[in-house]
Amino acid sequence: MTGTHDTSTGTGVRTGRGTTPGDGGSTRPVLVRGVRPLGGDATDLLLADGIVAETGRGMTADGALVVDADGLVALPGLVDLHTHLREPGREDAETVESGSRAAALGGFTAVHAMANTDPVADTAGVVEQVWRMGRRTGLVDVRPVGAVTVGLRGEQLAELGAMADSAAAVRVFSDDGLCVSDAVLMRRALEYVKAFDGVVAQHSQEPRLTEAAQMHEGELSAVLGLRGWPAAAEEAIIARDVLIAGHVDSHLHVCHVSTAGSVEIIRWAKSRGVRVTAEVTPHHLLLTHEEVASFDPVFKVNPPLRTPEDVAAVREALADGTIDVVATDHAPHPAEDKDCEWDAAAAGTTGLETALSVVQQVMVETGLLDWAGVAERMSVRPAGIGRVAGHGRPIAAGEPANLVLVDPAARWRVDPGALATWGCNTAFQGSTLPGRVVATFLRGRPTVLDGELAEDAVGADTARSW
Amino acid sequence: MAETRPDARTVLDAGEIRRALTRVAHELLEHNKGPRDLVLLGIPTRGVALARRLAARLAEIEDAEVPSGSLDVTMYRDDLRRHPTRSLGVTEVPPGGVDDKVVVLVDDVLFSGRTIRAALDALSDLGRPRVVRLAVLVDRGHRELPIRADHVGKNLPTSHAERVKVLLEETDGSDAVVIAGGRSGDPT
Amino acid sequence: MRHLLSAADLGRDQAVQVLDVAEQMAATQQREIKKLPTLRGRTVVNLFFEDSTRTRISFEAAAKRLSADVINFTARGSSVSKGESLKDTALTLEAMGADAVVVRHHAPGAPHRLATAGWTRGSVVNAGDGTHEHPTQALLDAFTLRRHLVGGTVPGAATGADLAGQRVVIAGDVLHSRVARSNVLLLHTLGAHVVLVAPPTLLPVGVEAWPCATSYDLDAVLEGAFGEPDAVMMLRVQRERQNAAFFPSAREYSRRYGLDVRRLGMLPRHTIVMHPGPMNRGLEISAAAADSARSTIVEQVSNGVAVRMAVLYLLLSGRKDPATGPVVTGGRTGGADGATRKDRRR
Predict the structure, then answer these.
(1) Which residue of A295, A333, A414 is the best one to mutate when testing the C interface, meaning the one whose CB has the most C CBs within 10 A?
(2) Most buried in the list A13, A320, B65, C102, measured by CB within 10 Å?
């Protein structure tokens, strides 16, 4: 159904590692034939010089790489607001490079690398290091997230301004993994980031209510004897934070919303004009706490999997825009951190390579969102919240050629060993999911073709930035 | 069940069973020179009922109370791991115990001898009888151990593949010994 | 039965079978020679990640009375309580040819992981996993209840019977109690009516879905608010819980929820008093109650050996069918495919 053919006559220019800075014009043009942008009418797209050069039917281009995209849907390249790349510090779990491969294969062209690395990304030095590793890999634009507090300790503000002014130009700040539970610190952070148009992304988890918590607190935790993580511990922090954000008129972003009550609070805050945005993860859109009965730690995530009613509520909220974006919370762990008893296991699931498929299953195939809606939730809005220029743009002539081509008719079985992420922990293991990323383009250059990483893709984009 | 099989045939009827047990009772008394020290231990399930019948016969003949009980051998079997888990039967030793007694083990069918081997082990954990004897209703041959019965109601030559089933009033509603299968090499 | 991980693994008939076999086992334990050859050549490993001399000894005695070889593996301390050691320990036991692994662990679900993660082929018996379950304790409690309430304390007299219609009050720290969880499941399966009594802080959120009644008022329950109680089981309450504000003080707890002399006097004549041990005399149970004629506390201990003999017998004596899957219900197993180490080519 799809395929790429090399129409070059032998003189076609190949982009490779030798590309020199500023040499953007050397990227070989790509002609995408018969693709349906946002699921609409089929068209051809000529990608050249990093942009969508031309659209229309029946185009030809000498020397271009032709991608037969009949039946495929084109979306703007996906932007993840919430990715754990683990580098520096836990290179046994994931690296910027391995995570970038996973991201490209999942259709992403930009990811936000969370700050809970070791050392913590709480200084300009660390965020620039991460940013440079991302550039060197060149598969996706890696946007470092800066820590809100020094060492994620929740005691003292990190140098948010220095990170904002660094080469990494950080705009999203988060202590994710930990909650900024001190109300005064949270207020100050929200106020301070206004100076550089930043956003504070809060991991909403009241710490005292969730000490040693293992799973959603309810009927099932009562039976399984696992320490409960009450919905109220998430909702209490969100309620507090939207009030503070409203008071200081700053931008609050709520990470991984998981409960129906959280949705209600965010809906209320938005109706009052509070500048609050929110994300939901693919696993909270698909899975429920009933998975925990197996005691298999691949289902241990934080916040925990919730009830079927909560899942229904976050789906509905994503559909009506109360929840703005889907973010993966891609959290790779080495096998030994999951191959143990539940209590001892690390929390988190990988998500970059499964996110689009899960969203297709729970939102598109249920009629809750069309492809334009998916583009909005997975590219346009996250790029806007993260202030990522050049991403989440319309698919039109003159726009940056950051694109993903999806085959919505494909079905695939999730095999943890076959994914590019080094994390062995996917909560979707063994599931059959719809939709497959066929190709991803970062500024017109293919990072993924035929569902595989493009040859020579790694390191090819070192010259470029957004 | 054997009695429902189309090829099942009755080899002993109720009268023949009754006469066989009466003969075994007489043999026991004759050999023991009376009922003294006799203790009958039936092996569950049907051996227990047979032991009770024998005790009743002995009481009729000699007007003496001969104690009878049951001896479950399940936990002493050597073939536990070849079969699905078995439930346990009841072991009930008469109040006088078995020490220095003449214990008569009673079972319905003597076949490989493995059940009796297990019974001897079980018995030795209960005490030290002076003599142990074995009484069975049917001896069908094919011994796998050096064990023989002292008192046999009926010797029944069979093929290895045949199934011999003893039916008793107490457990099955009527008395009969039936044989089924085997002729066509049916191993069940 | 392949494993015993939860009291919910047992249906009514299966549970009655365990109790019946336990009666026969108990009978053998009255003899001079208590040892049976049944599990000769089988290896039972007691894998205890948490100190519990009582439970370990009970399982050890049960296995030895059945002639199994017993290996005790006690792993204490924080370094071994880390997760990977459960897997590595299991692999070691597998290499040693364990036919059954009796596991006590502080983490709920650890026995499930042992049984389903593919680390060992042996039968797994849950000897208490954190605040989750303790199914053999529930079985021995059911055994004790049946003997007293159905069999008129005559051994074997209740064979074949369940606990239909019996009213059992379980009072104390239900939230942290694996005994309460297993008992609610098993006693309900056997037809008994269970009433849990605890301060609201010590009942789990979600307890409404359990197959039992709940109350905050011990006096009302003992007076018959849910019918005349046939048995009262007191659960251990740790004094340290007051530090986490589960109750204001040990004194107040004892006053409201302890089985003191006054409450002992409220019980109908036939009602028995149970405690899974170890007791906090003077806190959840008074000495008068613990030592009264109604108390089955010492008997529970000896019944424990018989019940564990029955469980080991039923798990280990029969043919092991390799095709038979684990009895665990719900969810996928972790296992082999998720655990494969990634190829880390760069």
Answers:
(1) A295
(2) C102
Q: Where are the alpha helices (DSSP H) in A249-338?
A: 260-271, 282-286, 308-320
**Is B83 in Cβ contact with C37 (below 8 Å)?**
no
Spatial distance between the Cα atoms of A45 and A66, rounded to a whole number of angstroms:
10
Under 8 Å between Cβ of C253 and C259: no
How many residues are there in chain B? 188
**Cα of C142 to nearest chain B Cα, Å:** 19
Nearest Cα residue in chain B from C35? B125
Q: Which two tokens stand for residue A290?
A: 């009933």
- Among 3.40.50.300, 3.20.20.70, 3.40.50.1370, 3.40.30.10, what is the CATH number of C7-133+302-336? 3.40.50.1370
Chain B CA closest to residue C2: B85
Contact C20 B88 (CB under 8 A): yes
Q: Considering only the beta carbons, identify the residue of C21, C37, C313 that sits closest to B121.
A: C37
Q: What is the mean pLDDT of each run of 10 residues along chain C (346 residues)?
A: 95 97 94 93 93 92 97 68 71 89 95 92 95 98 96 87 97 97 98 98 97 98 97 93 90 96 95 94 95 94 96 89 38 36 41
Domains of chain A are 3-74+397-410+431-453 (2.30.40.10), 76-386 (3.20.20.140)
For residue C213, the 8-state DSSP code is E
Q: Does A212 touch chain C (CB under 8 A)?
A: no
Q: Which residue has the tokens 């009965």?
A: A293
- Give domain limits for chain C: 7-133+302-336, 136-300
Residue A272 burial by CB count (10 A; 0-12/13-18/19+): exposed, middle or buried?
A: exposed
C182 backbone dihedrals φ, ψ, rounded to 5°: -65, -40
- ipTM, two decimals, is 0.90
Residues A434/A410, Cβ–Cβ less than 8 Å: yes
**H-helix segments, A343-400:** 355-359, 371-375, 381-386
Chains with ≥3 CB–CB distances under 8 Å to A? C
- C-alpha to C-alpha distance for C188 and C88, rounded to whole angstroms: 37
**pLDDT per residue as tens digits for the range A306-338:** 999 999 999 999 999 999 999 999 999 999 899
**What one-character DSSP code corresponds to residue A227?**
P
CA dihedral A219, A222, A225, A228 (to 10 degrees): 80
Q: Which of C5, C183, C342 should be substituted to probe chain A, the one whose Cβ sees the most A Cβ atoms within 10 Å?
A: C342
